[in-house]
UniProtKB/TrEMBL annotation:
SMART domains: GPS, LH2
Subcellular location: Membrane
Pfam families, A to Z: GPS, PLAT
Keywords associated with the record: Disulfide bond, Membrane, Signal, Transmembrane, Transmembrane helix
Signal peptide range: 1-26
InterPro entries: C-type_lectin-like, C-type_lectin-like/link_sf, CTDL_fold, GAIN_B, GAIN_dom_sf, GPS, PLAT/LH2_dom, PLAT/LH2_dom_sf
Superkingdom as given in the UniProt entry: Eukaryota
Record's protein name: Polycystic kidney disease protein 1-like 2
Domain C-type lectin per the UniProt entry, residue ranges: 40-145
Record domain PLAT: where: 608-725
Organism: Champsocephalus gunnari (Mackerel icefish)
Alphabetical list of CDD domains matching this protein: CLECT (cd00037), PLAT_polycystin (cd01752)
Amino acid sequence: MGTLLQIFVFFCLSVGFLFLPENSDAFTGNDLSVQCQFVFRNVCFEFVRGSETWSQARGSCANRGGDLLKVVNSPIQMFLKNISREGNTSNFTWWLGEGVQGQHQEPTTTENAEVSKENCTYIKLDPFQLILTSDCNQRRGSLCTHNEWSASNTKNTMVSSHAIRSRPKRTLLSDMLASVTKIDSLLLAAEEELLRMERTADEPTNQNRDEFIKYLLLGTVRLLDDSILPDNDTVNKIIKCSTGILLLSMNKCDIKTNPNPTSLFEQVLEIFRIISELVVSKYPQQFIIRHPTGIIYQSTRRPAELGNAVLGSEQDGAFIKLPSFAALKSQLGGYDSITSQMAIFTKNPHPTDVHISGTVCSLLLSNNKKEIHLSDLSEMVEIFIPYPNASIPMNSTIVLEKNTKALTTINVSDPDVTIFLTVEPNANVALVLRLSEGSPPNDTYFSNTTILSLTEGYRWMITPEMLQHTRGVWYIESGLLNSSWEPGLTLRINSFTAKCVYWDVEKETWSTYGCQVGDKSTPERTQCLCNHLTLFGSSFFVMPNYVDLARTAELFSTLSENFVVLALLCTFFGLYLVTLLWACYSDRRARSKRKMTLLEDNHPGAQYNYLIGVQTGHRKNAGTTANVTVKLTGSDGESDTHVLTDPDKPVFERGAVDMFLLATPFPLGEVRNLRLQHDNSGGRPSWYINKVTVQDLQTRQVFHFFCNCWLSVDHGDNMTKKTFNAAKNNEVASFRNIFQTRTSTGFRDEHIWVSIVDPPSRSPFTRAQRVSCCMSLLLCTMAINIAFWNIPIKEDSPVVFEFGSMQITWQELMVGVQSGLLMFPINILIITIFRSIKPRVISKSHKGDSEASLRPPSVTIPSILKDTEEMISMMSISPKNKMSETHRLETTSDLSYALDMVHDFIQLMQGESESDPHWVYCSKFLLAGLCHLLMCLEKLDERNFPSPQDYLQTLNTTNILVRKAEMVFSSHLAYCPPPVKKRKKKATCWLPWWCVFLGWFLLLSISGISTFFTLLYGLDYGRAKSIKWVMSLGLSLFQSIFILQPLKVLGIAVFFALLLKPVAVEESEEIEQLKLEQQIKCGRYSGRHSL
């Protein structure tokens, strides 16, 4: 039987014993020839239904040779409870003997306020309750017991799972055999035999054990054959009897010298499987059975519902997670419903030389007729197995001295074990670990190594492959990696091991084949990954129509008679050439609009950069001719108002995405608001703004602003100035936003036919390439369609899907699969190449610039005053700078006042003990402004000042401030270096630009081959068949363009929206070029190219 058993080898788990009742002491007494109604362990229980006081009841019981019941322990309690359920004694109360006592008895209720030695006790069976009363004169029935009772005096016997009456021992197994066809009698004999085995030394013997499980299995199978639906009590008794014999056999005294056969556990599991078939109609969804040896979970689902299904209970600790339905579909998709039965056992039922301890679980899949075997799954089955009594691994703390390393030694005794090693430092440092065998590792000798950090976690999973499946002593060395050592650095080290095996039924041994330990394992629970339940496989293939290539010349000679396919191909090629000319013209126009814009009104000294992406809507007349301005407001300050314009291209056209680089003198912090405004100029000033993104190019943080409104005096709310708040994270990742964005960009980019008309403005995939890819896809579709058109239908092909009168056979399905495999891979490869070509960024050539444009402007006192005033004004915007805005500078004396303010600000920055990016960029901006001022003063003549002394003093003061600003900048830069660019995994793997030739070569090749075979098949079919094929081709093209492609776009949009994956923000070399241009402007402005 192909069951899957997964176990974890680490901690031992103690197991309780049987559900059978504990022994009670035997009483001695007289043997009276009276008929007894109930017998339990050679003691007769007589219920006397009279109306007597306690004294009268005791006397009448003694006259009959008995005594009132004096002991109420757990077995007797269970016996009495069963009687109350099966008889009519529950509505009465019964006197008991003096000083009633017992083990684990339920709480006793006391009547009346005072308790004395004359108190009497009576019992109530439903609910079970012992009651102590001081009124012994009440009249009740009595419970009289007679000891050493003989079975010959028994008049009527009632049996339950916890109260077994006396029967002749010699007939128990014989009775089981005789009662195979009568399940109630079989279970009665089985319960009595279990009790006998528990009480008898050296039981169960091999013969008694084998006969017991054999008869129980036969009786259960008979229920299945006769289609008898058992009640809950019968099901519980079958499971208790099967697990009872299993526990007795596993705990027998000679288990080491006389082990159980492996077939014992398989027979128990077979009983479980039959039970599942019997109760599946009664419990179609799910039911749980808890028994002394573990738990059984059973559920029935449709095959599609098994994808990623969790079997078992995460609360109970053990559960199995199946792979996705895509991995199961090929092996389970043909069934209507599947019953899964997961059984958990607290003890290993197959003791072998392999040390197995802890929980064991099995998984069985069936279709209520036969067991279903799985194999070679593309995704792993996850089995989580708990350890309720697992102890916490011991931690060892090591003080790591300077220039030293920690060494851990592990003795590997099992070559298939997986080791989990945790090395956790008390500081945020990176560690390098090396593994070696036999001797400690060093820089040249080690077998494996890894790097641990805070972001990736400080745990290393060492697999059996890394240990080379070798026993012996292994060493692990832990040391710092690119981290500075600090005094008091400690490493807390702990480890645990895990192993996953399954029971190989054929070899009757535990095996690790196809199973491995998962990285989600913990000391309390192990994750096992397996790819099989058992083995099987199949295949099928459909051949296309045959065409004889040797007749190529003969077929082409018939073109004058059969020109249908040729005319169709010529028509498509003619349309392609016309569309290609239009696409090349449109690409040339769009190429000039792709460039990013460095804002001309950026201050030359500002070096903190933001990339602003403005997306104009697709509504009619959404573009604008007005001049648009923008202003950013952040948590640490705000920017100047900037004009969004580009002298080399039109901006804010309908459907366009315009990118601008905006520079500020210091970080704005978290961008919270964005203000857009236009001057309502031009012929079409109305503007529909869709969305704006602001990306901090230093921290890579992106802020989204969902506008979706008009800035117009004629539309919307008639406003040309609006302030927008940044979207929250849940708004950015919302299903609605991602779905709308993906759908909009999907039809313009993913839909290969529609994207020709309006592709994304910044996509490297040009219109000409898209048109050519559509032509290649069309030619491939024609060639494959005509090759498989009108193939002979196989009458014996099985029906895979049926809905009403529509049927899809296996042959038709395989034709579709093979067509896709022939057509899509090469075309997807070509499209991917064109999409992934790295755009060639051509640097701006300054040769054409006039000398006047490169010549610095003339230096005058008003220009110096204006530049100084602008520098102070921009620094005063930030509240952190604590700098008041200066008044208008009109004379050279005002310049001295402004320099004093700058000096105070430099002292403020010097007093800042903690550096952050704000002070770095502020000091850099101030240094650039002062250098520019010093350069201008040096070019200025002293006659522009009231006196030469004033000129020299201003020049010296500026020179001193430049040196101080340089020192402050260097100090802050040293203690707070610029943010390191995080190298993220690129969403797109860019190919070199020359790969475009490879794409064109593949495209032309596949188009030529497809054209040749299409024409050859058309000539081979003849004119009449070719006309019919052209008509069917039109339907296929309509299906592809208007059904399949839109469904693909919507499917991708829903997929990304459900995964809550926002659209990635664009990154390119063009951004780096714009930043370089801003740095060049700063170098020219300050006279220092190092800034």
